[in-house]
Amino acid sequence: MASDPTLNPIVCSRCNVALDYVGSKNFHEGTRWGALGEIGELFVKKERFDVYVCPRCGGVELFVDGIGEELRPREKKG
Questions:
Q1: Cβ–Cβ contacts within 10 Å for residue 65, how many?
Q2: Residue 68: CB partners within 8 Å, gap ≥ 6?
Q3: What percent of the chain shows pLDDT beyond 90?
Q4: CB-based contacts of 25, cutoff 8 Å, min separation 6
Q5: How far apart are CA 66 and CA 52, in angstroms?
């Protein structure tokens, strides 16, 4: 049984304020292949992260997409 993530919000380690979920972002590691286009993209490492931001100090926390999602609040702010 998964716990309710709204009861345990992720808090900023500096400000002790609940972090806002701002969405999932793709991060690209390695060279942009340009002329090779989509074929070149097969050879680079890409990772998707859930991003949370502190509304007070702007600190950012990243979580690997697909792991432990049931434990994190995912209601997107504004």
A1: 14
A2: none
A3: 41
A4: 48, 49, 51
A5: 15
